[in-house]
Amino acid sequence: MSSRITTRMSRVCHPLLATTRVGRYTLSSSLVPCIAVTQGLPAEVRHSSHSPMGPTPINPRKKVTIKSLQTLYQKNEPIAMLTAHDFPSAHVAEAAGMEMVLVGDSLAMVALGMTDTSEVTLEEMILHCRSVSRAVSTAFTVGDMPMGSYEVSPEKAVASAIRIIKDGRVQSVKLEGGAEMAPTIKRITQAGIPVVAHIGLTPQRQNALGGFRVQGKSTAGALRLLQDAFAVQEAGAFMVVLEAIPSEIASIITKKLRIPTIGIGAGNGCSGQVLVQVDMSGNFPHGRFLPKFVKQYGNVWGEALKAIGQYRDEVKTRKYPSQQYTYPISKEDLKEFEKAVEESSTSS
Predict the structure, then answer these.
(1) Is residue 273's pLDDT more than 60?
(2) Which residue of the set 123, 243, 303, 342 is catalytic?
């Protein structure tokens, strides 16, 4: 018996709505086209540009959990975190082996074209969290709580956090603020939701801070940061982001805490690092401002611009699509079609 799979094709058609004569042929039309049903094949053949990106490449590692993150922290192995704002950016972050993927409110600027993070809404954050979560299979996901979703009261914060977890399908939330946010952090963790705290430069509060300024540069400022770090730790945060802090101060804070710190512009003495994917991958036009702490690892914008420009040129010169990118038809069928069209033209 042959091991080759025998394929059987059947066609399922909806009732005809109209018929059209072309020469000696009768063509039928339907609101729903005939569907080819293939039996015995492992997957269907798609002839459409509207196809999924495909499954995330198989990652041999186990699912990253809070416990495994704590293990990395105890081993003094740096934790790699990166932002993602949609399915493609999360897809590549997962494939690259990020341990943590943050759906940061920086997407307000890099994905939605807004001026700053204060503009993005809870509904928009949830939408982007859902998109990211579909692409991530092993990394630990974190969703930013946008401005206005948690400051009013701990109860409102819990309600917002539940929506981000339940509807956004991420595994934890991140919120900005130090000691003043400790009661809110405690209340959210009591609801069973893991919290990543964020102190130092807190972009949502840029107006109160006098802009995007480095924090903790004075003795008093550094002491306030340490107090904030202790406060969020005691409130139940399992991790804290330290942003735009002198590296020496960040290192001391890291050593004093019993939870991991994630640095962004805080030196390499932290327990891990995070960057905005658009920044570090170079997915932006020339001349865009980058903070001092950003290292650009690629030139995604340049490669995309080159590819799109070449596509435009080939369309204009009819170089694309060449025969290689078109579907064939037999000479006999083509000749018969041309004859039918000619007969139709003659009869009319």
Answers:
(1) yes
(2) 243
